[in-house]
C-alpha cells in the first residue's frame, strides 16, 4: 500500500512540474484578441513598455594584436665585439632607462682604448709640428709642400681621435682617464628605454659580435592596437573613431580605444589593411605584446526607434509584437502587430516605418504560444 502511495505522489509531482514549465496557453478569440489571465501575466513576470529611441551604431569588425609603439621597443646589441662577463637582468624584469643590463670585456675593447691614448699623444706631436711650420710659412721660410703635409697629417689624426672618442663615449667610459693612461677592463651595456626585458639571447662567457642582438626591451606603456580591417570597409574608417575591443577572444570584459591612423597598404594575402588605435582609460600594464584582440570600430551612430529583442516574435517569414488592447479583472487582451525590423544592436531591434502606438509586451512574450 505504501509503495502504491509513493508511486502516485511521484506521478503527481511530475505532472505538476510539467505544467509549471509548459508555455503559457493563449486563446485567440473570434475578435482576434489574444487573451491571457492576469495570473499567467504575473507568474511569467510579463511587463509592458513602449518603443524607445536607442543609439544604433554601424560597426566594422576587426581582429588584431597588441604591439608596442615604434619608440616602445628596443633591441640591445654591442657597439664593439666582446665577451659577456655579467648579466644584470632577467626575462620579464622591469628596467629603468639607463639601467645596467650586461657587462662586457675583450681584447677589441682594450685595443680601442690603446688606440685612443696613442692618437691623443700623436695629435699633440702633429699639432706642434703643424703650428711650427705654419709660423715659418707665414715668414716665407721653408717649403709649402712641408707645411701642407703637416697640416693634412694633423687634420687626419684629429679626425681619427674624434671618431675614437665618440666610440668610447658610446661605451659610457670616462675619456679623461683614458687620456691619462688609465684603461677600463670592461664596460656596461645600458637600457636605452624603460621597459620589461622580453628576451635575453646570450650567456656569460659568450663572445658576441658587434651589432648582434643580445636582448630586447618592451615598454608596456607604449602599447597600441594593430587592427586588420578588410579592404571593403576601409573607406568607412578614419582617425578619431571610437573602438571597442576584447582581449584574447574573451567577451566578458569590453575595453575602448581611439583610432589614430588608417593604413594605406593592402596586404595581398589577407586583403586587409592595418590600422592603429590607442587604448583609453586602461592600465596598459595589463596588456601583453602580440596578444590577440577582437572588436569593432564605430564608424557611424544614430538614434532610432526600437524595442527589446525579447519583445519580438516570429511567425514564418513575419515578425510582430504583442500590443496592449484592454483588460478586465481577470483577462489581459493583446493583439498581434506586424513590424518591419531593421538592425540588431545591444539586444534591441530597430523598428522601420513603425506606426503603432501604445504599450507592447516587452517581457515574457517568448513564453506565449501564438499562432
What can you tell me about this protein's structure?
The protein is of the alpha+beta class and 371 residues long. It has three domains: 22-57 and 304-367, conserved putative lor/sdh protein from methanococcus maripaludis s2 fold (Beta Barrel), CATH 2.40.420.20; 59-71 and 220-300, Beta Barrel (Elongation Factor Tu (Ef-tu), domain 3); 76-218, RNA polymerase II/Efflux pump adaptor protein, barrel-sandwich hybrid domain (OB fold (Dihydrolipoamide Acetyltransferase, E2P), Beta Barrel). Helices cover 24% and strands 41% of the residues. The protein has helices spanning 2-20, 38-43, 107-138, 144-170, 175-179; strands at 27-28, 34-37, 47-49, 52-68, 73-77, 82-87, 94-95, 100-105, 187-190, 195-200, 207-208, 213-218, 223-230, 242-247, 255-267, 272-279, 292-308, 313-315, 318-327, 331-345, 348-352, 360-363. A hairpin with a 4-residue loop joins strand 15 (255-267) and strand 16 (272-279). The radius of gyration is 40 Å and the shape is elongated. The chain starts with a helix and ends in an 8-residue tail after the last strand. Mean pLDDT is 83; it is low at 1-27.
Q: If you consult CATH, what is the topology of the largest domain? A: OB fold (Dihydrolipoamide Acetyltransferase, E2P)
- Terminal CA distance: 46 Å
Average pLDDT score: 83
Number of strands: 22
Tell me the series of helices and strands, N- to C-terminal.
HEEHEEEEEEHHHEEEEEEEEEEEEEE
What ranges have pLDDT less than 50 throughout 5 or more consecutive residues? 1-27
